[in-house]
Write a structure and sequence with these properties.
By secondary structure, the chain is α/β, with parallel strands linked by helices. It contains 13 helices and 14 strands. Helix 1 packs across helix 3, helix 5 crosses helix 13 and helix 8 packs parallel to helix 10.
């Protein structure tokens, strides 16, 4: 009778054979974790000193033949640079921290993908942190990324005025996306012209005859000073529109119940349009309309903000205002890489809004 062992990722089965030749697992025996190849291993393989190997890996003070020999040995033995050890020696980790306000928001997911693609072209990797919609966590996560010795930080926070950014930016080159980080000497800022973006959407709705609009915003509580919400009041006053801003969760699932509440009740009291300051919120409005038996745009027009690619696939396609994501990612990573190279600060770019009118907005229904 054979004993049984519990196997995990650090154990492997020991095989034994019964009298009739059948193979059976006896017990799990400890598996040693794979040994990391070191510079000393490369030195032994190539017959060079550890110092010469180190120079060769960095392309310094050695001949092309020696550098090629060391790199061939490194590839053969699977040598990988230890980023933490390199940082402790005062070098670069080739890792960039990327902090976003909420990965529940589809636009932030697209941003992460675009930034990572740009950084891969520069032979750098990313360490991503998600604040999950909580501004209070953003500074804590930013500091943790710095503690992990990232070379730089790209941040798209939902609460940029929560404080503490000046300390983070002083410790590591930092680039802000979306809004400026008050008090912080950043390596660069890629800010959105939210005022113009809001104006474009409200003017579009006004031209379709809409005067009673509900605006769903994730920032009413978390970032009340954000320009986009101020722009709603300013544009509404200028156009003579009744625009009520309502605090809403930063996700499809969170916005659906609120949209049901907003769109329920007598027809005369319902808004003729809903303007969502995130496409993810707009998706929840679509779900609420289906639940209530309302049709977009015949019963209510819906407009979004950030123009996620998924918005073009909805039925009907969502009217939204957004930003050139490829240009945004290239600009933000470019600012960071330039700062890492020359130490300069205060680079700044303003992203103009791009309005995409689609089938989700139509003439306001008759009163």
């Amino acid at each position: 009778m054979f004993a049984r062992g519990v196997l995990n990722r650090f154990t492997e089965p020991l095989q034994a054979y019964t009298e009739n030749g059948a193979c059976a697992t006896v017990v799990g025996v400890p598996r040693r974790p794979p040994k990391r190849t070191t510079i000393r291993d490369l030195a032994e393989r190539t017959g060079l000193s550890p110092a010469a190997v180190s120079y060769a890996l960095r392309g310094l003070h050695v001949s092309a033949e020696t550098e090629a020999r060391v790199r061939a040995a490194a590839a053969e033995l699977g040598y990988e640079v230890d980023p933490v050890a390199r940082a402790l020696r005062g070098g670069s980790t080739a890792v960039v921290g990327l902090l976003v306000g909420s990965l529940a928001d589809f636009w932030h997911q697209e941003l992460v993908n675009a930034i990572q693609r740009e950084l891969r072209r520069a032979d750098r990797t990313t360490l991503v942190a998600d604040a999950d919609g909580e501004p209070a966590r953003e500074i804590e996560l930013a500091r943790r990324l710095v503690d992990h010795r990232v070379d730089g930080l790209i941040a798209s926070p939902i609460g940029p005025s929560s404080g503490g950014w000046e300390d983070v930016a002083a410790r590591v080159p930092t680039v802000a996306i979306g809004d400026a980080l008050p008090g912080a000497a950043t390596a660069g800022e890629v800010v959105f012209d939210n005022t113009a973006g809001v104006s474009l959407v409200l003017e579009h709705l006004y031209g379709l005859g809409h005067r009673h609009v509900v605006v769903l915003s994730w920032a009413v509580v978390s970032a009340p000073e954000r320009p986009a919400e101020r722009a709603v009041a300013e544009s509404a006053a200028r156009l003579g529109m009744d625009c009520r801003v309502v605090s809403c969760a930063y996700s499809l699932n969170g916005s659906t119940p609120l949209a049901v509440e907003v769109l329920s009740g007598p027809v005369a009291e319902r808004p003729t349009a809903v303007f969502c300051l995130s496409d993810s919120i707009a998706y929840g409005v679509y779900a609420a309309c289906r639940e209530l038996g309302l049709h977009v745009p015949d019963d209510v027009s819906v407009a979004g903000f950030d123009d996620h690619p998924m918005s073009r696939l909805l039925q009907p396609a969502l009217t939204s205002v957004g930003w050139n994501m490829a240009r945004l990612a290239a600009t933000a990573t470019g600012f960071l890489l330039q700062s890492l190279a020359d130490g300069a600060l205060d680079r700044r770019a303003v992203m103009p809004p791009l309005l995409a009118p689609r089938a989700s907005t139509g003439p306001a229904r008759a009163a």
